[in-house]
Write a structure and sequence with these properties.
alpha+beta; Beta-Lactamase; five-stranded antiparallel β-sheet; 33% helix
């Protein structure tokens, strides 16, 4: 099995939306849960190859840009907030072998705290 297919299968098995975005904020990958969330639940059309900001409002866009600036300097996961579905939203950096930022992924997790 080729590595790309294997990684895709692993990401698709995660029950929470995950989408990978490059440093220009262009969506490059969405797992099945992300496709369901953005296409079926929220009604967006094809997002892969388009700006992440096409599916975020201005306030959210500002939070993401500020978080990416922190990631560039500190390299850690950033907590963005809680979604209307009570999911915790994070941005995680993706770095190459030399430690350079090549993009980030947005992920959602069920918020178990009440």
């Amino acid at each position: 099995m080729e590595k790309v297919k294997m990684m895709s299968y692993i990401l698709d098995s995660i029950p929470y939306p995950i989408l990978f975005v490059d440093c220009d904020h262009i969506i490059r990958y969405m797992n099945n849960a992300a496709k369901y969330h953005y296409y079926t639940e929220r009604g967006y059309k094809e997002l892969i190859g388009n700006s992440l900001f096409e599916c975020h409002n201005e306030e959210s866009k500002e939070k993401i840009i500020a978080a990416i600036e922190k990631i560039k300097r500190h390299g850690n996961e950033i907590f963005l907030g809680i979604s209307i579905k009570n999911q915790r939203i994070y941005l995680n950096p993706v770095r190459d072998d030399e430690g350079e930022l090549v993009g980030y992924f947005e992920r959602f997790e069920l918020n178990l705290q009440k």
